[in-house]
Specification:
The protein has about 180 residues and is of the alpha+beta class. It is built from 6 helices and 5 strands; from the N terminus they run ααββαββαβαα. It has a single domain, classed as Cytochrome P460 (Chalcone isomerase), CATH 3.50.70.20. Helix content is about 30%, strand content about 25%. The longest helix is centred in the N-terminal third of the chain and has 29 residues. The chain is globular, with a radius of gyration of 20 Å. The protein starts with a helix and ends with a helix. About 25% of the residues are buried. The structure holds heme C (HEC). Heme C binds next to strand 1, strand 2, strand 3, strand 4 and strand 5. It comes from Devosia nitrariae. It holds the Pfam family Cytochrome_P460.
Length: about 180
């Protein structure tokens, strides 16, 4: 009769550990609102062809925050960046087709919408189990505007933390610097 007691004890322990770990990560993406009308009202500042993933990524910034951004400085609080993916047109061999300028050709609607948002004090509340990312937090949405339930945002933190010197962004910090030249 010992085995069932032991396994239920382990089960409760795992459940509690799971709740502790999941808590901050669930709280994170849920405080980020879906960026309504980003494709018509926000600033499209970059377009990245990812041949490896056969995707074209459209990268936007919320205009109010963008107007306050200064070259070489971290983005102001209230900054929201959106990266919206579309599939690339492929040929019969599944290789991306290029246009006259050598760019990939997006097809169909957005397939995924990634958001990073910065608000004062957010960094303190995201939880110790994710890598430091200043006051940025992350969320991934499905095209219908609901949070993607399969996303664990710990992965976002882990990869973007490599960009410490660029305010944890892959493109935005550099874009603000480049356009000031
Ligand atoms: C393996 C590394 C990696 C992971 C994991 C990752 N990103 Fe990124 N992210 C990138 C790269 C690289 C770019 C620049 C675009 C490109 O080259 O694909 C980027 C760009 C972005 C941008 C546009 C602003 C910027 O930094 O240039 C947003 C928004 C974004 N990612 C959100 C997310 C979210 C949300 C998650 C988690 C669901 C996530 N990322 C996970 C590597 C990563």
């Amino acid at each position: 009769m010992k085995a069932p007691v032991l396994s239920s004890f382990l089960g409760a322990g795992a459940l509690i550990a799971g709740l502790i770990l999941a808590g901050p990560l669930v709280a994170g993406p849920e405080r980020i609102a879906f960026p309504e009308n980003f494709e018509t009202e926000w600033v499209l500042y970059n377009q990245v062809d990812r041949a490896d993933r056969k995707r074209v990524r459209f990268i936007y910034v919320k205009p109010e925050a963008d107007a306050e951004a200064k070259p070489g400085q971290p983005a102001p609080n209230g900054t929201v960046l959106v990266m919206a993916d579309r599939n690339a047109k492929v040929d019969a061999d599944e290789n991306p087709v290029l246009d006259a300028d050598g760019r990939m050709i997006p097809e169909g609607d957005f397939t995924a919408i990634f958001v990073m948002e910065k608000q004062e004090g957010w960094g303190e509340s995201v939880g110790l189990e994710v890598a430091p990312n200043g006051d940025w937090d992350y969320a991934a949405f499905l095209p219908d505007g609901t949070l993607n339930p399969e996303t664990n945002t710990a992965g976002c933190f882990a990869c973007h933390t490599r960009r410490t010197g660029k305010d944890f962004t892959f493109t935005y910090f550099q874009n603000v610097a480049d356009r000031a030249k």
